[in-house]
């Protein structure tokens, strides 16, 4: 019973049965970046609190979200919560439900990491 599962693959179909994810677990799906590929299944999307960096980027790039919407596992993009909402306290993880964080990567995140590495290496 893992607490955290991280996927970072080029998979086009779900990697595991989402019904097996314990309710206390967090799944981070970061590998699929097209609307027709996914690492997680509808069962997980249906059960989980689905968090995204941005609803706009998820709608454009995250098959884990768009395919769940297409199948009806999620009613729409509004069924997701954003990291900003979670941090601000305007959204919460549903009690008794796993968390699914679908990340497509944001350019500002790359800049923050590159800046931190440069500061460490260059002083």
The SS-based structural class is: alpha/beta
Helix-strand string:
EEHEHHEHEH
H/I helix tally: 5
Share of residues in helices:
25-40%
Mean pLDDT: 93
Major sheet details: 5 strands, parallel
CATH superfamily: NAD(P)-binding Rossmann-like Domain
Query: Regions with pLDDT < 50 over 5+ consecutive residues?
Result: none
Shape: globular
Q: What is the level 1 CATH name? A: Alpha Beta
Taking Cα atoms only, what radius of gyration do you get, to the nearest Å?
Answer: 15 Å
Tell me what the CATH architecture is.
Answer: 3-Layer(aba) Sandwich
- What portion of the residues fall into strands of 2 or more residues? 5-15%
Provide the spatial order of strands within the biggest beta sheet.
1-2-5-3-4
How many domains?
1
Here the CATH topology equals Rossmann fold
- Secondary structure tally: strands: 5
Structure in words:
With 123 residues, this protein is of the alpha/beta class. The chain has a single domain, classed as NAD(P)-binding Rossmann-like Domain (Rossmann fold), CATH 3.40.50.720. Helices cover 36% and strands 15% of the residues. It contains five helices and five strands. The chain has helices spanning 42-47, 55-61, 63-71, 83-88, 107-122; strands at residues 4-7, 26-29, 49-52, 81-82, 99-102. The protein has a five-stranded parallel sheet with strand order 1-2-5-3-4. The longest helix is centred in the C-terminal third of the chain and has 16 residues, at 107-122. It is globular, with a radius of gyration of 15 Å. The termini are far apart. 30% of the residues are buried. The model has no long low-confidence stretch (mean pLDDT 93).
